[in-house]
Amino acid sequence: MAPTTIPHSKALTFFILPTFYDHFPLNLCLCLRDVRPLVPVIENGDLKALKEIVKCNPKSLFVPNEDGWISLHEAAYYGQEECLKIILRAHPGIVNTCGTCNQTPLLLAAIFHHVNCVECLLDRGANPNIANNDGETPLLKACGKPNAEIVDHLLKYGASVHKACVQGVTPLHEAAGHDNVEICQMLLDAGAKLNAANIYGIDPFFMAAQNGRVEVLSFLISKGVDMNCQACDGATPLYEASKNGHKEVVELLLSQKADANRTTKSGLVPLHVAVQKGHFDIVSMLIPATSKAKVHFSGISPLHLAAEHNRDWILEVLIKGGYDVNLQLAEDRSKMYEDRRSTALYFAVANNNLEAAEMLLEAGANPNLDMFNPLLIAVRRGCMEMITVLVEHGANMNASILTHPCSFPAVVMLGMKYSQILKYLMDNGCDALSCFDCTYGSKPHPPLKTLSRGRGFAEIVHYATDEDEAPINMCIQFCETINDPAISCWAGPIIDTLLDYVGHVKLCSRLIEHLDSNHDWAGIKVKAMPPYSLMQLCRLKVRQQVGIPRLRHIDTLPLPPILIKFLNYKKGD
User: Domains (ranges, CATH) in the chain?
Assistant: First the structure.
């Protein structure tokens, strides 16, 4: 009866039951008692024990483990050259046996840098071009480690330099990606193609740039490689190096006149991605090499990306480099954002990045180019510093929301919760009079229409450019806005503030209802009744003559300080 063998994990182990000895001759029984588990024997290089196994239980050499490895694989894996020789001397025909994933012993020896084992297997007929299930050959693996001595052996025994894995990666790709000039030279001498591309259109030069391999890049350039080759997505080696922050590679490529204006299929140039990733030094190198006309044609400025990703130090160098702070996103790029933003300033304000906003405004950014005015964002968030800098640079305080028209400035609708902000906006010329211009006047008002999904007025602005979220198409009036439950509790103080900035007005019936709802607000209703203060009317007339753009310069008028304070709604000493 043959001995029982039970494979487990990576150990080819078999056990001999004691009762079996009664059925064997004495000399064979003695031989079997000396047999030990096969894998430990190979791992430890116990040649004597291995020879006994070959002699007494040769079938165990072919029992596979769960990976499909037999004894020859184990010997190659552990780098036991003498074990390989013993096994192959007994069974030379198993030299190209493949495991479950089609690994050959030669592939394992190459992967684990066992040079002597590689040479031994090749000398005994191992095929260097058998690939595993992923299409990886021993040569591909040897180039990826890399190991020049193994590569040399494989090439001498006919390994193909053209055989690629399932993703199209060749040995030259691997050698270039690991910055091994020696192996690259060996492969080219053996006929490897410089421009062989993988399934993504990436050639060895591209891979070297992608991985920051300066020495190989210099070597391949000397061989006449195309420095401006493009992958399937249109990216170039310079683009990839810029994206990954390989400063020395970018410097090398630019010194060799690589084209900094080749665009990807999405229309971006290397400068765009360097800005996006925040590589300051690379951005500085690319600015003089990049065509502003090409950037303009792309429909997105590096300034947009710098502002979007809060790269303030890069934003500054781009502004100094002469990039147009008012360049707007192309329509297709603007539509990628729910709010249809279009300027770099909008990105800065949306990120609440005061420093970036100030830089852009000081450089001449127009705060009124976006469909949804950036000032509305700042007011909605209650950010006084951002509001101030926008207003000081001419932001339109009377801007409306195109998809949600109202009869009064949208900033009032958004700033009602913030008394300080509301007063600041009024001080700087926001139109308070329109808040009292009601269609129904003293007549009874119809019931309010319900807004879509029950959203409040302030919340609607967040969805102002989303057509699916748009409320009923109507022009909203101030008296309807203030009826919102979130605002109505502040109706009195809000109306009181607005009355300071208007002359002859008449409160509509709904506003009167609000004031009548709280006895503490009775004085506010009286304030709106004639006769009107002559001083108040004079102040309004002077401010009207000065004009909104110049209101913040009232203090330069040749008038007594106390009068200047009065005109600016500041209390005297």
Answer: 299-396 (1.25.40.20), 400-532 (no CATH)
